[in-house]
Amino acid sequence: MDDLKELGKLMKEHPVMIVVTLAAMVVGVGFGAVAFYQGWLG
Question: Residue 25 and residue 2: Cα distance in Å, rounded?
Fold first, then answer.
């Protein structure tokens, strides 16, 4: 439970970092899905 409090503090202090991280994750998932469906993974 303490971890969630720490995360909440971090999000208040560094909202831009959190947004950038989430955006990077979304882009990564998108690329992963495209690569999978295009058969680039072998």
Answer: 25
